[in-house]
Amino acid sequence: MLSPTPRTTLGRKKHRAVTDRSALHAVLDEGLICHLGIVRDGVPLVLPTGYGRDGDTLYLHGSTGAASLRAATQDVDVCVTVTLLDGIVYSRSVNNHSMNYRSAVVFGTAKPVVEPEAKLHGLKVLTDHLAPGSWEHAREVNAKEFAAVSVLALDLAEASVKMRAEGPDDEPDDVGADTAWAGVLPVRTVFGAPEPSADLSPGWTPPPHVTGRAATAR
Amino acid sequence: MLSPTPRTTLGRKKHRAVTDRSALHAVLDEGLICHLGIVRDGVPLVLPTGYGRDGDTLYLHGSTGAASLRAATQDVDVCVTVTLLDGIVYSRSVNNHSMNYRSAVVFGTAKPVVEPEAKLHGLKVLTDHLAPGSWEHAREVNAKEFAAVSVLALDLAEASVKMRAEGPDDEPDDVGADTAWAGVLPVRTVFGAPEPSADLSPGWTPPPHVTGRAATAR
């Protein structure tokens, strides 16, 4: 179970909080990017970045544009949000239009991972999320690259999941009037056909860990 | 031109800042949701929400989970980020894996739109972004709904666009070694077939403003 706290408790009707941990994991595992929020100079900064999950630890690429996060010598309060948009909800009234979605919001302190074995593991988790199979297929990280890269870890202790996954919720009068179409237009994220690099030597075909990914599109 | 400020200036190589306003508009117009960041009790909060653009004004749905934003009696510092993920970049080395993307980051103060004509216009802009054609097709907002809904406006004066739109950027040694596939796996957002509401009366077919949207998928 997720542990509700005042800042993960929800007030909106029809946007249900999901309180089991498997739902949180599912949203995080299906998303491709997260939006990382920090406070900088007293104002919010929200940047997209790569991430990966292992158990109840979320790893973040420290090499994002958030220089202030990289430079921090102490733990930084962050909010990491992953949103999957599933559909546009067309209602009989303009006012009841909505979106179907699943979103995970995680609060905590992002801690730099410095111990070499743990940092290498964090890099593998990040790679496995961004490009499953590449950790085994591509050239491994060398010492110089390893020293230059930055990995942050965030505990999933304080997190919430919200979702809407239903049809239009119209007023009875609007349903009766029957003057507009109502339904859901699904939204999905898909992978296209792999595009080989211009400098790739002839003879290569895209490997299964790339081509097979199309089947995992949602 | 966008006006660069210290907080919109970028330091990352290969992730280029785009400085023309049409690029900003294009990213905002193509995205479906934004991630709205605010500072609450000193820590960041990032929530997905609907938005729409008219000229250099970004409208936000005030009826998001950000209750503190709705309740605010003064202007609230926000950061609104819209990210379009365009591809996964597979490099010969794990370290050079990346993403192709376009992202817009907007800083400013979100101001409640209270003047009725302006608020109605904001609602139309929000609807036109979420569900083009619904403003004309669906039942209009009534007085009770209009009073209950909240619209925020954010000026696009302080904004930046970042993008990466290229193939792998491998080390010459890795290209020469030729031991791994390199290329880009495109990522796209698409609309599926419209799903009529369970309580829709027979005889309706999805109208063109819904079905025609598939052609606009990216």
From TrEMBL, chains A, B:
Q: Which domain of life is it from?
A: Bacteria
| InterPro entries reported in the protein's UniProt record | Pyridox_Oxase-rel (IPR024747), Split_barrel_FMN-bd (IPR012349)
Q: Where is this region: Disordered?
A: 194-218
Q: Which Pfam families match?
A: Pyridox_ox_2
What is the protein name for this chain? Pyridoxamine 5'-phosphate oxidase family protein
The species is Amycolatopsis balhimycina DSM 5908
